[in-house]
Q: What sequence folds into this?
């Protein structure tokens, strides 16, 4: 490989690595869903809408659940996102600077599938969960757990402390299910946040039990047009291979 080409590759890979490092170097404000109105489903199911207002866009959010919900709180009521005891908020982290705004929450109570749909693609959304007691969620999108109440300097959540684990299940045919499960470590009441990877406009997940109640809301740093998405594992692997290839070429040149 010519020296000039090696130099260009190194610069390109270095810039990419720097950009990826900077992306997670400091917590930034997130814009949380402002849930509005009432149940829009005339039958036994539930549907509600809200908006996420970013610096340059207003994104519509629609939540649907054919099995119904425990309750819906689009304004007023109890703030279930408060932290209890010493420590930082269960919902902030090295990535997320601010906890969910206001008291807006969708409280679940039924096992079954549900969907969040956005009017445009969003980047790396954050999902805040409350009281995942004796329950679990199985998502169709990969995620990272960002914070859990009662761990790593975080205060407990409104209902207490408790751990949660990520489990990836291979469904076959190239399909996977990404589970967030209560693990009863340090308590039975997990509160915290997770972040999905990439840019998309729909998230579907399955609640595993009929536990009353566990709740959530969702926030974003920005739309897919505003914020670069977290690279997929294949992209990171390609970056690693590129760096390794450059190293091999340089070693060969030195051995001549």
A:
């Amino acid at each position: 490989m010519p020296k000039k080409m090696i130099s260009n590759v190194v610069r390109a890979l270095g810039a990419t690595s720097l950009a990826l490092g900077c992306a997670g170097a400091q917590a930034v404000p997130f814009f949380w869903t402002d849930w509005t109105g009432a149940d829009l489903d005339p039958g036994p199911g539930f549907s509600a809408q809200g908006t996420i207002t970013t610096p340059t866009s207003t994104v519509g959010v629609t939540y649907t659940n054919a099995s119904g919900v425990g309750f819906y709180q689009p304004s007023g009521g109890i703030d279930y996102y408060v932290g209890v005891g010493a420590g930082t908020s269960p919902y902030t982290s090295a990535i997320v600077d601010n906890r969910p705004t206001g008291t807006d929450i969708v409280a679940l109570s039924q096992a079954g599938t549900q969907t969040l749909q956005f009017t445009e693609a969003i980047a790396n959304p954050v999902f805040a969960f409350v009281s995942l007691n004796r329950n679990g969620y199985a998502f169709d999108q990969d995620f990272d757990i960002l914070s859990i109440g009662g761990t790593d300097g975080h205060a407990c959540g409104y209902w207490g402390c408790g751990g949660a684990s990520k489990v990836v299940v291979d469904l076959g045919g190239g399909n996977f299910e990404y589970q967030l499960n209560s693990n009863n470590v340090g308590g039975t009441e997990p509160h915290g946040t997770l972040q999905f990877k990439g840019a998309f406009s729909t998230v579907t997940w399955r609640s595993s039990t009929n536990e009353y109640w566990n709740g959530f809301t969702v926030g974003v740093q920005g739309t897919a047009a505003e914020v670069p998405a977290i690279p997929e594992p294949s992209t990171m692997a390609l970056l690693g291979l590129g760096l390794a290839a450059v190293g091999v070429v340089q070693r060969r040149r030195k051995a001549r």
In short: The chain has a mean pLDDT of 86. The longest strand covers residues 112-123. The longest helix spans residues 233-255.
